[in-house]
Write a structure and sequence with these properties.
The protein has two helices and no strands.
Length: 78
C-alpha cells in the first residue's frame, strides 16, 4: 500500500520537476523538440509545475486533515 502511495505522489512530483526544467530552459534560450516556440514551452512548463505542485500539496493536505494535524479553521465541519 505504501508503495502505491509513493508512486501516486512521485509521478506528479516528477511532472512538476519537468515543468521547472522547461521553464529554466526558456531562460537560457534552449528549445525542446516537441515545442514550436519558447513562449509555448514556458507556458507548458508553468502548467506542469502548477499541476504537480497542486496535486502534491492537496495530497499532503488531505492526509494531514485525516490525521487531525491541521488548525481548527482547516478541519472538517461536522
Amino acid at each position: 500500500m505504501r508503495l502505491i502511495a509513493l508512486l501516486v505522489v512521485l509521478l506528479p512530483g516528477l511532472l512538476g520537476v519537468y515543468g521547472i526544467k522547461l521553464m529554466r530552459d526558456v531562460l537560457f534560450g534552449y528549445l525542446q523538440t516537441p515545442f514550436p516556440s519558447l513562449s509555448l514551452q514556458f507556458l507548458a512548463g508553468l502548467v506542469f509545475f502548477a499541476a504537480g505542485l497542486a496535486f502534491v500539496g492537496g495530497f499532503i493536505f488531505y492526509r494531514d486533515r485525516k490525521r487531525n494535524k491541521l488548525q481548527k479553521k482547516f478541519s472538517k465541519r461536522s
